[in-house]
Design a protein that fits this description.
2 domains, alpha+beta, two-stranded antiparallel sheet, globular, 10 helices, single chain, 16% strand, 4-stranded mixed sheet, 10 strands, 44% helix
Length: 194
Amino acid sequence: MFDIGNTLVSIDLAERFFCCNIDACLGACCIEGDAGAPITKEEYNKLKSILPVVWDDLLPRAQAEIEEHGVGYVDPTGDLVTQLVDGKNCVFSTYLPNGVCICAIEKAYREGRLDFRKPISCYLYPVRVKRYPTFTAVNYDRWKICKSAEVMGRRNKMRLYEFLKDPLIERFGQEWYDELKANCELYIKTYLED
């Protein structure tokens, strides 16, 4: 683990290669799982406020789910998460003509219709952040649906901390990321390079 400020960061961020390969996984991270994406109370309110912008991109079943149950719920572990459609798709998922599932919020962001990219837990994925009373844990959520991303990352020689540079900076700040990068580079040079 790397100890940076009040965070403990898994060495997986230095050891693991990663680069999303959405053509291979088809956006499975927006579909698979046992709950919606973790969101903060502020993000919950933001999701409600941006509904008019993304509404037409949402699946009809997602629109009905939101109308009946709202944009989020508290899951069995007590976390606030996005609502699901049919127990799997995030209500904010949408499909491209080629069958790839993407986030309707990020689609609107990229099209210049929103200034909000998506919930930070989604932007950081496959890293998960968990707060504890005295520190925050930053861990790699290794999952079979991201196997193609690990293969592509190795091919491109891109480490997980490099792939997630922008979301890590958004969440923790530039100074924190610079310290993480320095720790990762030293770890790689010391333990992983011949």
